[in-house]
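Researcher: For the annotation table, I need structure tokens for Phospho-2-dehydro-3-deoxyheptonate aldolase. Please keep the output clean. Sequence:
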Amino acid sequence: MTFKATSQPIDVAKVRNISKLEGDALAKKEARDRELDAIIRGEDDRILLVIGPCSSDNEAAVLEYAKRLSTLQEEVKDRIFMVMRVYTAKPRTNGDGYKGLIHQPNAKAAPSLINGIKAVRNLHYRVITETGMTTADEMLYPENLPLVDDLISYMAVGARSVEDQQHRFVASGADVATGLKNPTSGNLNVMFNGIYAAQNKQSFLFAGKEVETSGNPLAHAILRGGLDEYGKNIPNYYYDNLLDTIAQYEKMGLENPFIIIDTNHDNSGKQYLEQVRIVRQTLINRDWNEKIKKVVRGFMIESYLEDGRQNEPEVFGKSITDPCLGWDNTVRLVKEIYTTLSKNEK
């Protein structure tokens, strides 16, 4: 073994007492969680938007975004339900680059994981208590879930993790809505095997103990496109893709069929303005086909204060990972979704 401990073991119970939700804030989160559950179960027909920065690298900028999003949510709440992306751990294909707030609570400083855990809890806590928005995060490290699962309302299993058995099994024990993405290859069977595992009971070792889970009926699909053998983007939000995905849901008899379209990544080729077109096309497909309308009921949108991305954290509210829609474009897109839904219901 070549591992070298650089800190004492983490006391999970002690960490969970940091930035702990109580009183009105806890009640509001639980109420919003019930609304989200109803949407995924098909009992509430509002559109779900999992929306926000690619990575939450700057607390002040994230909180400014959250305050604006909270106001926008109030304006569209009868047809759109938003959960804010507060992504604090980022997968890095070759290990290089910014790995998220949990690694670097200060993006300009050296990594500090212990301080990162505190920063992650504090950020989720502040978004909820100061703006009323509930939050989403990516389960990049399954063993870290107990450090944040009491604060988040939505969890994503990413394209690089969806084939991993530990991620699937831990998702089966999560008490929150969990979206599983198709892998970067675009192989939907991998994603559906993950959803099946997450929706069913599992027994496995976790945090040094043998555990059993009851299954997570809110586990569902996120279509994010893929890459062919030459590295070319292969989107999977088109009409036939949606029908094929729905057919696979039906074939496997999975609970609560629900599809979210990830409008960035390999669907857009990381051309952030393409997110607008992808949403528009999907709304047309929903209006054209009742089966699609019933199952495709969410979008994952990368959005921040400023358009695009930057290599270093110099411009306030501009992504240092994938390019995002800026705030003005975000408002226009959300209001366009709202208007389109309103027209289609008449």
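Researcher: And a one-line annotation?
Model: DSSP finds eleven helices and twelve strands in the chain.
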